[in-house]
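ok so for the tutorial part 2 we go from a plain amino acid sequence to predicted structure tokens. step 1 is just haveing the sequence, like this:
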Amino acid sequence: MAFLKGMVTVFDIEEELKKLPVKPGVYMMKDKYNNIIYVGKAIKLRNRVRQYFRKSTNHSSKIKRMVTMISSFEYIVTDSELEALILECNLIKKHRPKYNTLLKDDKSYPYIKVTVNEKYPRIVYARKLTKDKAKYFGPYTNARGAKETIEVITKIWKVRTCNRNLPKDIGKQRPCLNYHINQCNAPCQNYISEEEYKKSIKEIIEFLGGKYDKVINILEQKMNVAAEELDFEKAAEYRDQLASVRSIAGRQKIINASMEDQDVIAFAKAHDEALVQVYFVRNGKLIGREHFHLNNVEDLHRKEVMTEFVKQFYSGTPYIPKEIILQEEIDEANIINAWLSNKRGQKVYIKVPRKGDKHKLVELAAQNAMLTFEQFGDKIKREDRRTKGAVREIIDILDLEEEVTRLEAYDISNTHGFESVGSMVVFEDGKPKRSDYRKFRIKSVKGPDDYRSLEEVLTRRFTHALEEQKEMLLKKQDMSLGKFTRLPDLILMDGGKGQVNIALRVLDNLGLNIPVCGMVKDDKHRTRGLFYNNIELPIDKNSEGFKLITRIQDEAHRFAIEYHRKLRSKKQIQSILDEINGIGPNRRKALIRHFGSVEKIRVATIEELETVDSINKKVAMTIYEFFRG
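step 2 — the prediction. this is what the tokens look like for a chain of 629 residues:
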């Protein structure tokens, strides 16, 4: 595969296209750095992959851009189209390729779990739905609501919340606090029979299934009896429980009489964003709704948007309802239906109603999607202008032909040459990617020489990249797993001609071709323009591009200064404690670990110093006298 100058193999796309099999499978398009930029599936890999490279094919603008970035591709053959669908969903979720339509929200929903697989079941809060023979209720779109429901159940039915192994551990330990505050019937002491306990669990399951009337009637009767017997404290307790149950019941609106589990999905689309609204209907009642963002939808038809959402949403959601009601038809409905039915373990019905109650429900979801989109639309546009829009402005100023996603900026910090350090900050699509930030302690330069320090930092950074890429290539590993493998589309240097030329020299020595731009400052240390191709280019100070450059410059400076301060502080601590007789590296570490700072060591008494590991009375006195001498 061809990635960089100096790499071993060359990927001949025309030759590799001839080798494609006429079988179902998944293909992965890769850029020159071996990053996966698109994942797709095909019934016949040969036909589908070849289409991308045919000039006659009427591609969307997004696909045309993507094709110019493809340097190689890989494919995985599967036994069936269904297997290809599952693999495609998993790979998109794992790699989040740049040119795929992506579900931006990664929400997980809580469930209420009834451990009916135990002799004395418990009611617990669960984040995952697993095949453990327990009974699950949800998903709940509000974690607080799920926890409140469990609290109400515990107060009314007084079921256990402990992890004791019952009936094996009955009578082995005293009852816990919940028994003493009247919130558990203590099955651990046999204070309630197994039959009576299971009767409570049956009532709880009915309650969680939406049958509130029975519970309300029971509580009303108990409250009235307590009031007649002048037990007002007990009556007040039932009154509060009644209010809690009515509150839970009031949150859930009856949607249909069939009492089916359904997800109702509709969306609103504008520009390259779509906002999808999902209604969660369980046992015929609307238990919550949630909205999701999809990006990269500018060239997609509505049918394609719905297809992408359904595939990505249900690949990450553990619970599949019996019915999925959609606003739009989807592609490959039969395959997706088979996949969802397989995940659920029962037949799933995908419906696109055109009339009746279900159609009204879809319309309601669509209206809410539009309202939510209007509410968040301006925010999305503003965010796009200050991030991706700002990057586009910089590209236009520099007149770059290749697409720019990843920007890296470098800065040097030192105080009169003391502990020189370098910083590398990364912005992707105009947003900081802090997980990719790197800091460098200058090794080869003595004194305040920013040019040579920059040369060391850049040489180390890009040498690491080449070595990692080569190693991962030989091992056939995923390039995205490396610390340095992902290379920038544009390098930003804090400075002008001198700093830019240093970077260009390093890249040339390593056989890399990456554009380098300087962020030039005026006499008052404020950004004034960009230095590129030996020309200083003006930039509108009111533009989003200028604001992004300023943010990047400030971030590179902040990150370098922060690291420099840390090293300086550490050096000062070491130099003070190293002056004390009998204090070596181990005792120094023990003192700092125990007291936290030199100031606290300075004011410590001999007795306090003696409490530190490896510090005896003699050493404690030496430290004490050192700071008071």
